[in-house]
């Protein structure tokens, strides 16, 4: 095995990017609903959005394997819709990752949106702003750091995701063999030198990306303040 | 909260773990999980020694022992992992004829398994040749002994190249069985011990892969050198090799060595 599996590296990046994009589309309205909405059932929604953190990832992966498999009507429906079964495919990993990383997108957004001054929200409402306008012009600009945190956490959590991929993936090069699976294989096969190289590169690149992201967001913040 | 409650809570949180008896710790290959617990119960009845087993892939257990995991006995699913520990001076087969060779306590059997409600014909070598077989689950051949045997058998049948794009690699033999049992894979090359569990024998049927198609899956045991209970560890190995337990293994899908 080569010391660096670039195919797996690219696959992990692709999975994390797609997952993060989908999560933003789901998590921003969900967090806004939890913060702006009224009613006791919202507590249930918030709890539900946090629950994927409770299950051990391999167990979550196992449930998804069964749910998405051809033995359930749901799994057969999805397979008919897509033309192929979801297990052991890249699309299947996306579904698993979105569920698995959902709390990491929703939690920071809820915290950020909730910290926005309610007077501003009420004022905007009085001036006739609808929910879309509230979110896009008030909540998101004022909770930029939380949005950034949600993106960073979802992305990194998906890069490092292991249990769900292990269960749902089937270790297929180019389709489901992500970098964390390669790393695990290298460790389990006693190829510690290769594992060290892979891990070091992954950590180094992630650290660089994080510093870059945080540096730009800080600049913007201080420019606004000045 | 009453004082008694707090005291009880404190005792539960901090004292309970200390009260656990120093029992014999067994590192056992995952394929033993379906059959090993009753054997340990019988062992305690016969000898008064309480033993607890941890089930993992042989590779994981080997790494753990190399890094100081407090196991007394290691029951691998093959010979290469215990040999590796012997070569590193971390384990031995003391007491047997040759202390540098792991004690073979059983042989594994590879089977082709599929669900009864599968659209494909029931398991046979013809099923492996069938083009309708879209996904065949195997265990990771780099480290799982049954995965290695599966690849060897496919090579012997000259089917490996044809089936390679259709292979789904599972982390271990139990996961390979899950892939098939959940109907995500059409069939799987798994262990007879898995196929004979009540769950899988209810859901599907198996075909024993002819033994001349793959090198024997010899399962080796060693005693971890750092054990503080060598006598108890030896008793467990003797117990494993006793006729009664060997007969028990045979019922559960392992081939006795005695």
What does this structure look like?
The complex is a heterodimer of chains A (226) and B (258). Chain A has 226 residues and is mainly α. In chain A, helix 1 packs parallel to helix 5, helix 3 runs parallel beside helix 9 and helix 10 packs antiparallel against helix 11. Chain A contains 11 helices and no strands. Chain B has 258 residues and is an alpha/beta fold. Chain B folds into 2 domains: 140 residues, D-Maltodextrin-Binding Protein, domain 2, CATH 3.40.190; 99 residues, Periplasmic binding protein-like II (D-Maltodextrin-Binding Protein, domain 2, 3-Layer(aba) Sandwich), CATH 3.40.190. Chain B has 12 helices and 11 strands. In chain B, strands 1, 2, 3, 4, 5 and 11 form a 6-stranded mixed sheet that branches. In chain B, strand 1, helix 2 and strand 2 form a beta-alpha-beta unit. Chain B is globular. At the A-B interface, helix 3 and helix 10 of A face helix 3, strand 8 and helix 8 of B.
List keywords for this structure.
heterodimer, A: 226 residues, mainly alpha, B: 258 residues, alpha/beta, D-Maltodextrin-Binding Protein, domain 2, 2 domains, 6-stranded mixed β-sheet, 5-stranded mixed β-sheet, 11 strands, 41% helix, globular
What layout of secondary structure does this protein have?
The complex is a heterodimer of chains A (226) and B (258).
Chain A lengths: L5 H31 L4 H10 L6 H12 L4 H10 L7 H25 L3 H9 L4 H12 L1 H16 L3 H7 L9 H10 L3 H34 L1
Helix pairs in contact in A: 1-5, 1-8, 3-9, 5-8, 5-9, 8-11, 10-11
Chain B lengths: L2 H17 L4 E6 L6 H12 L3 E6 L1 H9 L6 E3 L4 H8 L3 E2 L10 E6 L1 E6 L9 H5 L6 E4 L5 H12 L3 H4 L3 E4 L2 H9 L5 E5 H4 L2 H6 E5 L8 E8 L5 H12 L1 H9 L7
Parallel strand pairs in B: 1-2, 1-3, 7-8, 7-9
Antiparallel strand pairs in B: 3-11, 4-11, 5-11, 6-9, 6-10
């Amino acid at each position: 095995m080569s010391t660096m599996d670039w195919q797996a590296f690219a696959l992990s990046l692709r999975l994390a990017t797609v997952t993060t994009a989908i999560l933003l589309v789901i998590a921003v309205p969900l967090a806004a609903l939890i913060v702006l909405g009224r009613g006791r059932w919202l507590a249930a929604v918030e709890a539900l959005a946090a629950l994927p953190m409770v299950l051990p990832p391999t167990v979550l992966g196992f449930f998804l394997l069964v749910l998405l498999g051809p033995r359930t009507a749901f799994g057969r429906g999805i397979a008919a819709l897509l033309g192929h079964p979801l297990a052991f495919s890249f699309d299947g990993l996306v579904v698993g990752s979105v569920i698995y990383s959902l709390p990491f997108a929703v939690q920071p957004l809820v915290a950020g949106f909730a910290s926005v001054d309610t007077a501003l929200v009420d004022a905007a409402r009085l001036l006739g702003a609808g929910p879309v306008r509230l979110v896009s012009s008030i909540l998101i600009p004022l909770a930029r750091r939380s949005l950034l945190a949600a993106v960073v956490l979802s992305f990194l959590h998906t890069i490092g995701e292991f249990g769900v991929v292990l269960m749902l993936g089937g270790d297929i090069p180019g389709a489901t063999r992500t970098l964390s699976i390669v790393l695990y294989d290298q460790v389990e096969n006693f190829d510690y030198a290769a594992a060290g190289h892979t891990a070091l590169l992954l950590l180094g690149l992630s650290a660089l990306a994080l510093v870059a992201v945080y540096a730009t967001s800080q600049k913007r913040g201080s420019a606004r303040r000045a | 909260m009453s004082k008694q409650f707090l005291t009880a809570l404190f005792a539960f949180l901090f004292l309970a773990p200390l009260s656990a008896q120093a029992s014999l710790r067994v590192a056992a290959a995952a394929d033993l999980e379906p059959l090993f617990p009753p054997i340990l119960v019988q062992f305690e009845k016969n000898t008064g020694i309480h033993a607890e087993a941890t089930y993992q892939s042989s590779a994981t257990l080997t790494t753990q022992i190399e890094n100081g995991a407090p196991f007394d006995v290691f029951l691998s699913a093959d010979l290469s992992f215990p040999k590796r520990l012997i070569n590193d001076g971390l384990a031995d087969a003391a007491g047997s004829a040759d202390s540098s060779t792991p004690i073979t306590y059983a042989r594994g059997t590879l089977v082709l398994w599929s669900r009864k409600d599968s659209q494909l014909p029931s398991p046979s070598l013809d099923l492996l040749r069938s083009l309708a077989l879209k996904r065949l689950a195997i265990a990771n051949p780099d480290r799982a002994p049954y995965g290695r045997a599966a690849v060897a058998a496919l090579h012997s049948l000259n089917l490996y190249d044809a089936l390679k794009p259709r292979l789904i690699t599972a982390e271990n033999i139990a996961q390979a069985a899950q892939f098939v049992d959940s109907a995500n894979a059409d069939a799987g090359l798994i262990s007879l011990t898995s196929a004979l569990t009540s769950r899988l024998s209810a859901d599907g049927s198996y075909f024993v892969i002819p033994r001349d198609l793959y090198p024997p899956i010899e399962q080796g045991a060693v005693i971890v050198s750092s054990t503080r209970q060598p006598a108890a560890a030896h008793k467990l190995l003797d117990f494993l090799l006793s006729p009664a337990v060997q007969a028990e293994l045979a019922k559960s899908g392992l081939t006795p060595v005695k």
